[in-house]
Structure formats: structure tokens, C-alpha cells
Design brief:
Udp-n-acetylmuramoylalanyl-d-glutamate--2,6- Diaminopimelate Ligase, Chain: A, domain 1; alpha/beta; 6-stranded mixed β-sheet; single chain; binds zinc ion
Length: 260
């Protein structure tokens, strides 16, 4: 099996044409026509630890949510972590493939998955780019939950340690908007969708004023909101291809640490 046979499966689910103009999703390192050497490792980010894990497990391809190379590289002399990772991948003959904003926008992609984990039903795209694709989702909980119960659910199911939130202007939550990763730009879409809470990440100070008493905004952390990428990519590949080893990374860690 070739590298391109694996990536074609992913692109059937999340076509590269769905990625944002600033993105760099796709095959970042490696050759599409090469035979897949060993198995495939799935992680959130490419790091030296994940590259070591791939080598230990005998994986010739690492599939991540975030592309290792995002800003153009002008040289490759080991001066930065990105450069060292590219160097390690090439020396070890490990291909790197990223499924990023195309996985955010795909139908049943990132925000859909988070919604399902939280029991959100009747989901629709929050900020559509076409009928079924776009950023974020909005839907309803089967039963209303108190804010604290929803926060407990976030802590329990997504291993969230810290929830930064705006004023708690709702006691009970029914309508939930979600955008995984940096979702500050979907704030007005969340307002327009009439949500009780908008769950996202990477908010800035002023974003916490933005709900203006109409809903709650909650920042659960970038990594915490995107860890589900590993499960989505695992499910896509394990359903379509069964004759190779597929691993979920145990070394894909949050670069953000909390001192509580
Ligand atoms: Zn991200």
C-alpha cells in the first residue's frame, strides 16, 4: 500500500479543498507514491516525542491534526523544533501528513465529534461554507443541564483542567454552540444561533465581554478541544483499511501546562 492510498481515505472524509487559504494541510514531508513502511501513528502535533514513538512502533507515516510546517521555512539547520522535526522525519524515512482546517470544516469533523461526546443533538453547522461544511456546530442537549453539570462533563469527558468563562448569565443550558480550536471569530455566529453557551478555545480578554449578557462563552483550551482529532482520524482509517497497524499516539501531549 502506498502513502497516497492512506491519505486518499482521509481526503474522502475531509477534502483538502476544504482547508483555509492560510493553512498547509496535506502531505508535509514524504512522497505520496512511496510504499507505506510499517504502520501509521496518529497524533495532534508532530513533536520529537511523537517522532520517537513512531520509530519505536515502526511507523512510516504520522498523521496529525496540526501541520508541522505552517510558516514557510527558509533554512533547515536544526535551529528550531520545527526544523529538527523535519530533519528527524526525513532521516528516519517517516512521512508527515496533516488534516487540519479541512477536518475542522468537514461534515462530522472536529466540532461535530465534540458535540457527540457532550451529547449535543440535532447539530447544524455554526458558520457554514456550504450546506454541510464550515466552522463549528450548534445543537441542543437532550435534557437541559446546569452550568456546573456541563462544566463537570467537560472536565470528565475532555480532560479539561481549567475553564475560562464569561459571566454565568444562564443557570440552565440547552442550546450549545461549539467550535474546536481558536473560535473567537465565530462569536457572532454563536450569538446569531441563539446558544446558551459557546464552547471554544484560544479566546482573548475582550472576547469575554462579547456575549454581552446574551450567552456564556467558555474557553476549554486548544489541545483539550482538539484531542478528538486522534479518534476521528483513527475511525476514518480503521473503517477503510484493515491490513496495517494503526496507532493512537500516547506521546501527543498538551504543550500548555497549568499551575493550579
Ligand atoms: Zn488547532
Amino acid at each position: 500500500m502506498k502513502i497516497k492510498d492512506i491519505t486518499a481515505c482521509i481526503e474522502q472524509f475531509a477534502p483538502l479543498t476544504l482547508q483555509e487559504s492560510y493553512d498547509n494541510a496535506g502531505l508535509v514531508v514524504g512522497r505520496a507514491d512511496d510504499e507505506l513502511r510499517g504502520g501509521v501513528l496518529i497524533a495532534v502535533d508532530v513533536t520529537p516525542q511523537v517522532l520517537d514513538e513512531a520509530e519505536r512502533l515502526g511507523c512510516g507515516l504520522i498523521v496529525t491534526h496540526h501541520p508541522l510546517i505552517f510558516h514557510p521555512l527558509k533554512r533547515l539547520n536544526s535551529a528550531s523544533m520545527v526544523e529538527r522535526c523535519v530533519e528527524m522525519a526525513i532521516k528516519r524515512d517517516i512521512a508527515l501528513y496533516a488534516c487540519h482546517t479541512n477536518l475542522d470544516s468537514a461534515y462530522e469533523g472536529m466540532s461535530w465529534r465534540l458535540g457527540r461526546v457532550l451529547g449535543v443533538q440535532d447539530m447544524q453547522v455554526l458558520e457554514p461554507s456550504s450546506e454541510m461544511t464550515g466552522f463549528g456546530v450548534v445543537g441542543t442537549l437532550a435534557e437541559p443541564l446546569s452550568v456546573e453539570a456541563l462544566f463537570d462533563l467537560l472536565r470528565e469527558r475532555l480532560s479539561v483542567k481549567v475553564i475560562r468563562h464569561s459571566a454565568l448569565v444562564r443557570e440552565s443550558i440547552r442550546r450549545v454552540a461549539i467550535c474546536t480550536g481558536a473560535g473567537g471569530s465565530c462569536m457572532e455566529a454563536a450569538r446569531g444561533a441563539g446558544c446558551d453557551i459557546y464552547i471554544t478555545a484560544d479566546l482573548r480578554y475582550n472576547d469575554f465581554f462579547a456575549p454581552d449578557g446574551e450567552f456564556i462563552v467558555a474557553d476549554i483550551g486548544h489541545f483539550e478541544s482538539e484531542f478528538c482529532a486522534i479518534d476521528i482520524l483513527f475511525d476514518i482509517l480503521s473503517k477503510k483499511i484493515t491490513n496495517f497497524a494503526l496507532h493512537k499516539s500516547a506521546c501527543s501531549k498538551n504543550p500548555v501546562h497549568y499551575s493550579l
